[in-house]
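Researcher: We're teaching a course module on how sequence relates to structure. For the next exercise, students receive a sequence and then see the predicted structure as tokens, so they can try to spot secondary structure elements on their own. Here is the exercise chain.
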Amino acid sequence: MHPMHRPDRRDWLTGLAAGASLGIVFLGIGARVGMRVIAHSAGQAPTFSIEGSIAVSLLGALTGTLIATIFLLARTTLPTRRWVRGAYFGPSVGRSHSAVSAPSRC
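Model: And here is the predicted structure for the students to work with:
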């Protein structure tokens, strides 16, 4: 992507694929490892399920795709102002992350 043009179809496909791939690696697999570390520190017996790992990895890919979409929308609406894009992108990702990861209160 050149900094002075709006994203085209190729930029969208590449950006969404990169977001999904990075989401699987860092958010999906990283979350699964984090869960295992927490369970181990709590003294629980080791358990593993393919279904759980796939679900966590797919949620990581979905989150990565959503973050890539926010980034590309910022590039679409604010193509020339890098600092405005950054000021928009950071809080948008923070807001979307806090809405998704907020604990439910029963």
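Model: If you want an answer key for the exercise: The mean pLDDT is 80. DSSP finds three helices and no strands in the chain.
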